[in-house]
């Protein structure tokens, strides 16, 4: 094969591949073609002459004892072994067990062999492309990607084109209630990349993972991007509500204030991307009891105790609905955020206790008055 380096350079340029990987793919394609066309049991090797730009194919044969070869097998190309006698005629230094290489002619390939080589080249170049894409997108797992919707199938799965590669946003990974049309520009998190034998590379996207919220906050809040504010954990019920535990590395920065922004402009921007999902920003505490108390906000907590990995939270009766939240969403998120199973213990509020105390004393005073008036009537009689 003449001018093979020019072909390699052209393929490398058009496909955006590294030259060395294209060289390896072409060598592999030529070896596979030789195995299919000549004999699969033979050993082949390929070399590219950098000066002449010519690709050469070699067959490797093993030197064996003269008695180990049968009549008719000593013809080159008809066996993977060569007798010691014939090997000595080529090179006197060769011994039994050594390997000898000789070049095979590629100039007189039949049309069948040429077609086989063409298919092998296409296959191996495609494999290199897939490997490059796989490594590229694998490095982007957990980051936000943006693309245009190109199709929505009958199962309501959305196909999004990202850098000329089609990714899939399954219905289960989409926020409840949202829908997309062809041409919509969509942000999502790159959740997973895998290779399927039939479909090739499958890029899975998601808009429901807590990681998506974290990355959106990183884009919107400079303090988080600069790592002055740290996101410790995030819990979401997609499309409804989320809680984010944050802290600041600098005493001059209020983590909650920085994340929320002036008049809530930053957090509202993130919420808008998530179908107006309500987002609670909570200051993280290394003290579990304090962290649990903050996670249950806006409820006011009286006391927290932890036993055997379970948190027992004492709470005034009038604060219990706030702690539980609508359909139990607040306590579920608090449990997800802190990692503790939370059990609420009701306690009468102080105002009620005071009122109950006043009622009791009032009843006692009234009873005393009744007793005194009855005694006075007796004296009068």
Structural description of this entry:
Residues 70-77 and 360-381 have low confidence and may be disordered. With 381 residues, this protein is an alpha+beta fold. It folds into three domains: 4-130, N Utilization Substance Protein A, Chain:P, domain 4, CATH 3.30.1480; 140-206, Nucleic acid-binding proteins (OB fold (Dihydrolipoamide Acetyltransferase, E2P), Beta Barrel), CATH 2.40.50.140; 209-284, GMP Synthetase, Chain A, domain 3. Helices cover 39% and strands 28% of the residues. Strands 7-6-5-8-9 form a five-stranded antiparallel sheet. Strands 1, 2, 3 and 4 form a four-stranded mixed sheet that branches. Strands 10-11-12 form a three-stranded mixed sheet, with helices on both faces.
Question: Shape, please?
Answer: elongated
Low-confidence regions: 70-77, 360-381
Q: What strand line-up does the widest sheet have?
A: 7-6-5-8-9
Note the beta-strand portion.
Answer: 25-35%
Number of strands: 15
The description of the largest β-sheet is: 5 strands, antiparallel
The top level CATH class name of the largest domain = Alpha Beta
Give the helices and strands as they follow along the chain.
HHEEEHEHEEEEEHHEEHHEHEEHHEH
Query: How many domain modules?
Result: 3
Q: What is the radius of gyration?
A: 38 Å
Annotated CATH architecture of the largest domain: 2-Layer Sandwich
What is the number of helices? 12
How far apart are the first and last residues' alpha carbons, in Å? 139 Å
CATH homologous superfamily caption of the largest domain: NusA, N-terminal domain
Backbone structural class: alpha+beta
Helix content: 25-40%
Average pLDDT rating: 83
Assembly category: single chain
CATH topology value of the largest domain: N Utilization Substance Protein A, Chain:P, domain 4
